């Protein structure tokens, strides 16, 4: 009689071995690319702050204490306080949830929608390609920041309106980029072979087109997080995004400009945080691009 438990364990061993090999290979790849490892850890730290700000900032970002207004950075308030006595360190940490959170909420859906449009245009071609690309051209005809401002103003001030406005102007770039990739991929020999074997269009797109597209878009999406953050904070600074007392980075800078001469930390520190966050994702994207390029060249 066959021992089913022993047979199951035997079948699971190759799967476990493959999983361990994949983990070990990924770890070794990261060790061989220290820039990617370091910038990746920094990017993950920003993601951690977005989801768990309360583990870093203990005080509330909205509690008022007029007796402590405009205190300079010190041990009690690492980044100082604002005109209402609110702790700037807490407001900046909690503000990551809004500023970076909105950046993620813009780039990820924009990339997904842009991939769908780009794949349809590039693979189907013909009238579909013409109509979709003319739609993309309409969005490219306007300066993206002006179009985002106009859209956010029309939708009304608020976080949701800001995300929708930037999402509308962000996806066409992905659509055009993906279309160019697909036009090249659909002529590759392995795609022609899959088509000759009778695999349908959905199967070819899912198995042979999308994996390569996603692989290439990792770099673009990572770098776009920083660019989207600049767009979010800029529109919030203009009053089109988050509204007081939300601790959003652009809104904090907007409220600090009247107090620059007497309370430099109120403006300088949030600005440095925005620059650091943008630089972190930009460097991570560059390191990822270099690592993937070296892997393809081998």
Ordered list of secondary-structure elements with their pairings:
Layout: H1 4-31, H2 34-51, H3 88-124, H4 126-140, H5 144-155, H6 159-185, H7 189-196, H8 201-237, H9 249-256, H10 264-297
- Give the low-confidence spans: 6-12
Number of strands: 0
* Element pattern in H and E: HHHHHHHHHH
| DSSP helical segment count | 10
Strand content: under 5%
The radius of gyration over CA amounts to 24 Å
Structural class: mainly alpha
Portion in helices: over 70%
State the main characteristics.
298 residues; 75% helix; mainly alpha; single chain; elongated; 0% strand
What does this structure look like?
The chain has 298 residues and is mainly alpha-helical. Helices cover 75% and strands 0% of the residues. The chain contains 10 helices and no strands. α2 crosses α10 (264-297), α3 runs antiparallel to α4 (126-140) and α8 packs parallel to α9. The longest helix has 37 residues, at 88-124. It is elongated and about 75 Å long. The model is unreliable at 6-12 (pLDDT under 50).
């Amino acid at each position: 009689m066959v021992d089913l438990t022993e047979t199951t364990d035997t079948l699971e061993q190759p799967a476990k071995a493959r999983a361990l090999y994949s983990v070990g290979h990924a770890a070794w790849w990261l060790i061989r690319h220290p820039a990617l490892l370091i910038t990746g850890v920094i990017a993950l730290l920003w993601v951690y702050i977005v989801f768990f700000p309360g583990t870093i900032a203990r005080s509330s970002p909205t509690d008022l204490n007029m007796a402590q207004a405009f205190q300079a950075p010190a041990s009690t308030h690492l980044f100082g306080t604002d005109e209402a006595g609110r702790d700037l360190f807490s407001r900046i940490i909690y503000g990551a949830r809004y500023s970076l959170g909105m950046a993620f909420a813009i780039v990820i859906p924009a990339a997904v929608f842009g991939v769908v449009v780009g794949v349809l245009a590039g693979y189907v071609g013909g009238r579909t390609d013409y109509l979709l690309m003319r739609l993309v051209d309409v969005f490219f005809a306007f300066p993206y920041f002006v179009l985002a401002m106009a859209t956010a103003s029309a939708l009304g001030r608020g976080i949701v309106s800001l995300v929708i406005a930037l999402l509308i102007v962000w996806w066409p770039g992905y659509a055009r980029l993906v279309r160019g990739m697909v036009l090249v991929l659909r002529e590759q020999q392995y795609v022609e072979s899959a088509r000759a074997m009778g695999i349908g269009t959905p199967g070819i797109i899912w198995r042979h087109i999308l994996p390569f597209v996603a692989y290439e878009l990792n770099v673009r999406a990572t770098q776009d997080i920083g660019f989207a953050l600049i767009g979010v904070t800029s529109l919030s600074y203009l009053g089109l995004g988050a509204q007081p007392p939300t601790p959003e980075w652009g809104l904090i800078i907007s409220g600090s400009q009247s107090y620059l001469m007497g309370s430099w930390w109120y403006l300088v520190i949030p600005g440095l945080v925005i620059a650091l966050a943008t630089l972190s994702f930009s460097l991570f994207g560059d390191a990822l691009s270099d690592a993937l390029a070296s892997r393809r060249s081998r």
